[in-house]
Amino acid sequence: MERLDGSDEAKRRLRVILETVAGERDVAEACEELGIGKTAFFELRRKVLQASLTDMEPKPVGRPRKELSAEEAETARLRDENERLRTDLEISQVREEIALAMPEVFSPSQTKKKLPPSKTSEKRRQQRRQRRKTRQRKKGW
User: What is the CB neighbour count within 10 angstroms for residue 16?
Assistant: First the structure.
């Protein structure tokens, strides 16, 4: 306890409280030593134990995040946007180079052709039509 920061009086009071918690001293002796009544002692002991317990609560690991000012936040946002735009520009330049070197890849005459429906999608369409017809017959259409 001597290595802890605090006045000698505070260390003495803490030592007496801890001795009562450990069962080495009874409450009457502690009250006499500290010059306080039982109610004040129990309140003091509760405060000490509560402060200790509060300090034992888990805390986030590492340094706390630095709160950015509005100006710093705006600067960070602009920096991120600038990086994104540079990346987009680089992608566009690469596409342009590919289009110049390999015009058949990006030929405007090649439009995407609609693929024929698969057998399963055609089968589903037929099933839906059949269910609709069945419902219409039940309703009396």
Answer: 20
